[in-house]
């Protein structure tokens, strides 16, 4: 069980942690400081990697004069490290052990444990984790937990040979007489059995103890259930199988009662738990514990604002709609399924139960902290969900027409939405309060953006203008009116000093402080549909109806590179996080990855015969997500150019795909009115990248 204890004010001793043992021989560990975890995500290739290398590891261990059996070698895949810790070992059920905190400004005392049973044992790491300067030592060098893989070979009881047996019972002449698998005994040492002399009874050896480690029980289960030479499993496998419940006393029996699927290689060398099965089971378990229409409470927040009760009583514009008991409704869990070689990916469909008339959605947005997803709909409502649970947190109603765009503030405290009613509204993400209405446009708002520094909101309209608003006072700062037509799209530079906008076949770069035009991007021969800044803000990439994407100098407007890799209009463009590459997605069903300085093509991605409507790099640049007009969402290895997953669920054009800030989820929104959350962790587990 994991419990987080919040820090204490300076000079105040933390309250003690009281632990009562529920069984004999129990243990606990307390980390005095925040621990850090690093791990290689459990995936389908790790067992194969271990199988290929464990003979070499065993030889290496023997060369270092370590007397270990091959099956005693484990492969470390992750760890948890901290600065200071204490371990308590209790011998008797009912024992109370108290962990005493220390003053926050005197961390050198460490943690102390008092026990009602003198036979209890404690161990602790270094108490002194502050430097002489008084600052906390940034180095977490105390390893308290490990993630690992373990293998077990199938071992058979050696056939016993009678000393006075005939020649037909002896080993073949080419057998090694020193081979340890033959145990030569006298006639008095064995039982006489009837039957054919060639019949040998084989049993697994050594016998399995009833109280051995759960990972060992998992390995035994694989060997008992499948024909394979070696079983390989990890602690993560065991955790997934247990689904968060405490380890049972008899893990062997627990595993036998479960309907577990195994993957066995064609050569039958290695057996392992099916990753597909575990992924599906995770979502089935989630769905079983939370029905689609069952209300659940929102996650508690440390952010300022009214309590949940006050939130429920808020009535302005009916912006928050709790259930009768003040709790929040959940979205649909799509468990997915395995049908032969076909795998339907599990995911969460963000929705509002009992409301199927919301209409198409605008491109969704993910909050910078990765906790919330927002989208606007044709029914003039903005909906906000918790990305992890799928809970509908806010239903924001004040617009009079279709909501075309939404964006979160950098500190996640606000959400701005723009509508065909010509108004942008700023909402509180804590309370759902309508904080301000940005009125000034004379037509529909088509696009908007929050500046990265949180100081400015930009809105673009069919009235051919862009307006810059003070994000704190909500006053108009500048009106940028040098556009020949409807403002199609916009983007801020990373330092918030520049804004690029597009209208017709032109791009405009603006100084956000002065409102002055910095440069014009002229050269395209048709409508510009997409714009994106490089990470350093010095370059801009645009995608156009003229089948090209172009890279420009943002300060001068000079065209640096013209990329002509498509045969149809380009709908989406983006720089890679390191700025070395650009992607462009086209009506011709392909995504082209090109060197951002030379324009040379590095990879061409194509999977479905459908228009690429949206594409995005993951935060680390290793993956690409793409959306299509047929509703498909694909995930690609950006370095290899290979497809990793083909998500099915949307029934109409995908408006947008976006990675969460930590890269763990992909959010897609569609004209079918749905917003869906797909797990990147599931993809990497099933389709390893090494």
Automatic annotation (TrEMBL):
Respond yes or no to whether keyword Repeat is given for this record: yes
Highest taxon of the lineage? Eukaryota
Q: Where are the WD repeats?
A: 365-395, 396-437, 438-479, 521-562, 563-593, 605-646, 647-681
Gene3D superfamilies according to UniProt: YVTN repeat-like/Quinoprotein amine dehydrogenase (2.130.10.10)
What keywords are assigned to this protein? Repeat, WD repeat
The Polar residues compositionally biased stretches are 184-193
Indicate whether Repeat appears among the record's keywords.
yes
The segments labelled Disordered in the record are 162-200, 288-326
Name of this protein: WD40 repeat-like protein
Species annotation = Somion occarium
